[in-house]
Amino acid sequence: MATTLEFAEFVQETGSDDLSADVRDALKRRLLDSVGIALAAEVADPPQAVYETVTDLEGDGPCTLWRRGERASPVQAAMHNTALVRYLDYMDSYLAPGETPHPSDNIGAVVAAGEYADASGEELLAGLAVAYEIQGELAWNAPVRDRGFDHVTHTVISAAAGASKLLGLDLEATRNAIAIAATGHNALRVTRTGGITEWKGLASANAVRNAVYAAMLAKNGVTGPRNVFEGQKGWQDVVAGPFEVDLTPGERVHDVMTKRYVAETYAQSAVEGIIELAEQQDLDPDDVTAIKLETFAGAKLIIGGGEGNRYEVASRAQADHSLPYMLAAALLDRDLSLAQYEPERIRRNDVQDLLRIVDVTEDPDLTERFENGEMPAVIDVTMDDGTTYRVEKDAFRGHPTNPIRWEGLEAKFETVTEDRVDAERRDEIREVIRSLEDRDVADLTALLA
């Protein structure tokens, strides 16, 4: 059975020297991807509301609010910056059979703690490795979705661990930080069921805010239930059930996927497939009479109608969690990027009509294939004349079996930031991240201000 001490010891024992060259490279790619997405999200309404809330609550602080002119405490900076990373639903995902969290949710917290502590780039990499590893291990070994808890219940633990690393907490303080975070902040799955609201895109920001606050409390001597995982009425009794972990120096980062499209994780293969089919067959959307997607259980449950109506789509938060909308928009526009989530695009009759003929069903064979590491999808598009075109996908570009390397990630970074950041600063951000071992966290945050 996993213990609180086991997690705390892992945080203490994992340093930058323990990270392989491949892990370091993968973590830098995760950082570049997340920073680019954050820069693109600055004008979105919910992150703007977070910014206004943060600046209403406190004045100047030691940490950068990315893309703003103000600074704040590490707690509020973690909240604000994570909202930017997460809101567009373009972030990374960890693929486990029973849970699909977003390890990039940890980045805002770890960077804020690192900026507060005047940490080096080497220390930042160690903290990110800790957070990504714990997030992945919890997703794989202790899924909580079917028990009614949201995956950010894992994030508060992994972010508290990563923040503790950057703050330089000793073993007992780290144990207390994890204990406080895991005891007090277990989020409900209702966030992603029924009618999707804006909280879906902000839940992880709230989780990492709580994580950094827990670490700061522990830094200043507050103790928590030191047996939070293994104790009576503890996390394993109440939240997850018994589980074990096998923690490595960041190797779980290699199981993280990059989103090629602005879409919920489980939609990636299906979206790629329908765009390929539309382009190859030059499909006329006006002649389409039916779209059928066969998919795996998780996709059907979360974005295919298993946890609420996915045909009533009126907002961005609803659109990026609706397979019918995503497939209809992708077929119409031959793309699924930021433009497909503009309010006027969502409301347009062509996509609203087409999404209603999308049928999503679960295939048990595809579920088994997903649990064995694929992300399968089978799509049939039927035309007015009775012709049916089919595409079958095992995975997508960006899946761990077909990862996007530096060239592809830098292209994505350029695409999402070119209207927000000048070319010179974009180059500087890339260079700092690529050479992080020779930099300080402040070198990066200065460029993100």
TrEMBL record:
* One Pfam short name: MmgE_PrpD_N
GO MF terms, alphabetically ordered:
lyase activity
Show the Gene3D superfamilies listed in the entry: 2-methylcitrate dehydratase PrpD
> What is the top-level taxon of the source organism?
Archaea
Q: Where is the MmgE/PrpD N-terminal domain?
A: 6-246
Which residue ranges does the record assign to the MmgE/PrpD C-terminal domain?
Answer: 261-437
- Family, as annotated: Belongs to the PrpD family.
Know the name of this protein?
MmgE/PrpD family protein
Taxonomic source organism: Natronococcus pandeyae
